[in-house]
């Protein structure tokens, strides 16, 4: 079994992303603390919500709607790590400095608009 | 050991036949024929024991070759590459519900070389079956425990693990965890029909059996599984 994992709300991500799994503060190569917006590249992948609209019919088509998930890949002294920012991108939180961080810029606000549901293009499989 | 005598006698006879010449049969008084008069062996009655495959020469040799083949196949299957059927709706639309055969690279067992976005085969921690899911978090990463829902909110699915107490609704909501050391976070591509880390929590890397590298629809097509995680600056594949 996995060890106890304390959950935290998304709002605390910018602050807690600066703490490594060993409990030590993460720092960049030049000694600064990790800022999700400044130091981390944005990545995305699609997952889906698939339903069978007519399950009573044999061979009924499956309809899938994409769900966009966002990730930030950051680099610290010890290597890279990833933080999922699906519910964080594009919110006011993305421009609010964390407790330990100093978030800058507003370059990703537009991404939140397409983070989920905006591209509800049905895909039949 | 009287039963060995006929065998030895037969062996001696066959060795004599190989080195006798037709033109100069050996006489009891003469010495061995000169080497220049040696000719290729001619078995009596045109019987050619060499026509039989060499590996069938001895039953023990057959058994030995079979054993070697089985051991080699086991080595490849366990530590190289394997293929097995898969079924279920949890990885739609990446994999069909039925009729998929998955090619699994065992070089990535125990999570070796796995990155976020890869599809892995793993031992399901709550039963004896093998599942296939996508890795969304590795040790030290931060992942959303819940399912992203309409409008950027979440649908609570990971609340039953005693790991969180928040409601996680609305934009910017949801609960997250940091994946502990030695574990990963896996989620099926079909979010509404997948039992994964949202249900049973982080999965030990030791349960990772390998990385799914291709889906084979028997004897018709092969679809290579490519990590879909793309930089946001690049066009997204759909």
From TrEMBL, chain A:
**A UniProt-annotated Pfam family:** Mitochondr_Som1
The record's listing under InterPro entries reads: Mitochondr_Som1
GO cellular component assignments: mitochondrial inner membrane peptidase complex
Name of the protein in its database record: Uncharacterized protein
Q: Which organism is this entry from?
A: Achaetomium macrosporum
TrEMBL record, chain B:
The protein's matches in InterPro entries, at most eight in alphabetical order, are given as: LexA/Signal_pep-like_sf, Mito_IMP1_subunit, Pept_S26A_signal_pept_1, Pept_S26A_signal_pept_1_Lys-AS, Peptidase_S26
Q: Which Pfam families match?
A: Peptidase_S26
One GO term of the biological process aspect = protein processing involved in protein targeting to mitochondrion
Classification of source organism: Eukaryota, Fungi, Dikarya, Ascomycota, Pezizomycotina
Residue span, Peptidase S26 domain: 64-145, 178-214
GO: which molecular function terms? serine-type endopeptidase activity
* Highest taxon of the lineage: Eukaryota
Which residues are responsible for catalysis?
A: 90, 133
Task: Give its localization.
Answer: Mitochondrion inner membrane
Q: Where are the compositionally biased (Pro residues) regions?
A: 25-46
Q: What's the protein here called?
A: Mitochondrial inner membrane protease subunit
E.C. designation(s): 3.4.21.-
The UniProt similarity line reads: Belongs to the peptidase S26 family. IMP1 subfamily.
Q: Disordered: where is this region?
A: 19-51
Quote the cellular component terms of the Gene Ontology held in the record.
Answer: mitochondrial inner membrane peptidase complex
Question: Which keywords does the record carry?
Answer: Hydrolase, Membrane, Mitochondrion, Mitochondrion inner membrane, Protease
Look up and give the organism this protein is from.
Achaetomium macrosporum
């Amino acid at each position: 079994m996995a060890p106890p994992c304390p959950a935290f709300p998304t709002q605390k991500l910018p602050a807690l992303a600066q703490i490594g799994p060993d409990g030590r503060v993460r720092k960049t190569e030049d000694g600064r603390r990790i800022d999700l917006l400044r130091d981390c590249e944005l990545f995305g992948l699609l997952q889906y919500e698939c339903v069978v609209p007519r399950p009573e019919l044999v061979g009924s088509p499956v309809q899938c709607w994409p769900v966009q998930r966002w990730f930030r890949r950051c680099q610290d002294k010890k290597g890279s790590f990833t933080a999922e920012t699906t519910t964080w991108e594009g919110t006011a939180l993305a421009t609010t400095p964390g407790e330990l961080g100093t978030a800058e810029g507003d370059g990703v606000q537009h991404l939140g608009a397409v983070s989920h549901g905006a591209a509800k293009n049905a895909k039949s499989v | 050991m009287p039963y060995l005598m006929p065998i030895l006698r037969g062996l001696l006879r066959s060795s004599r036949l190989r080195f006798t010449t037709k033109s100069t049969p050996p006489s009891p008084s003469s010495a061995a024929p000169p080497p220049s008069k040696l000719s290729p062996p001619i078995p009596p009655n045109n019987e050619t024991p060499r026509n039989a495959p060499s590996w069938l020469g001895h039953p023990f040799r057959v058994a030995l070759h079979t054993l070697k083949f089985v051991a080699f196949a086991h080595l490849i299957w366990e530590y190289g590459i394997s293929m097995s059927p898969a079924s279920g709706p949890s990885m739609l639309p990446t994999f069909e519900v039925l009729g998929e055969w998955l090619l699994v690279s065992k070089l990535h067992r125990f999570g070796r070389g796995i990155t976020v976005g890869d599809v892995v085969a793993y031992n399901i921690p709550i039963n004896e079956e093998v599942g296939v899911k996508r890795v969304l978090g590795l040790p030290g990463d931060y992942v959303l425990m819940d399912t992203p829902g309409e409008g950027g909110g979440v649908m609570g699915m990971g609340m039953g693990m005693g790991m969180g107490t928040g409601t996680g609704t609305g934009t910017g909501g949801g609960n997250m965890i940091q994946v502990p050391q030695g574990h990963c976070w896996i989620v099926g591509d079909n979010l509404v029909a997948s039992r994964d880390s949202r249900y049973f929590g982080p999965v030990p890397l030791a349960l990772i059996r390998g990385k799914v590298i291709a889906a084979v629809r028997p004897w018709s097509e092969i679809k290579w599984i490519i990590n879909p995680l793309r930089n946001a600056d690049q066009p997204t594949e759909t």
